[in-house]
Design brief:
Length: 152
Amino acid sequence: MTAAGKPALIRDPAADDEADWRRLWAGYLAFYGEDLPEAVTAATWRRILDPASPVFARFAACDGTLVGMTVNVLHEGTWTVAPVCYLEDLFVAPEARGAGIGRALIADLVDLGTMRGWSRLYWHTKLGNAEARRLYERFVAADDFCRYRLVL
Ligand SMILES: CC(C)(COP(=O)(O)OP(=O)(O)OC[C@H]1O[C@@H](n2cnc3c(N)ncnc32)[C@H](O)[C@@H]1OP(=O)(O)O)[C@@H](O)C(=O)NCCC(=O)NCCS
């Protein structure tokens, strides 16, 4: 449901979603204070549409407008034979928040993964992102790993 009480549809991306997706993507980057080069955004969009790429997205749409997205990477692992899904980016448009769309987007990945035989779905966020963490804790408690990230 959106804040206006309308149901949001969770679906695969289509080529003509690009402008709408770029609006969400820009909001997401702004949330993180990030300013990625255009070449990176263009490559991400190409990968989202490329069925051979391990990157894939799911969109929440309401009245034909995108109101939320997940962008994910399906990868192999060493501790499991079945694929592992990394939920890299989750964003709901500010005007659509607090109406269950974030929850529906994660539930959608849980359903997809169950149907397709993935072994795990994982994600991380900043310790201080209380809104996101409240949502995440509805699915699973955070573990006690911390992240090391060396930029090359
Ligand atoms: C985090 C985010 C995706 C949540 O999306 P959302 O559609 O608002 O989330 P939902 O409406 O599904 O909320 C689900 C739960 O989160 C909590 N929550 C979310 N937004 C809230 C708000 N503004 N105030 C209070 N609680 C909130 C609630 O506990 C709610 O659970 P409940 O209804 O059972 O109490 C959204 O706020 C967002 O895009 N934030 C900016 C980007 C970001 O932080 N991304 C995730 C980190 S990578």
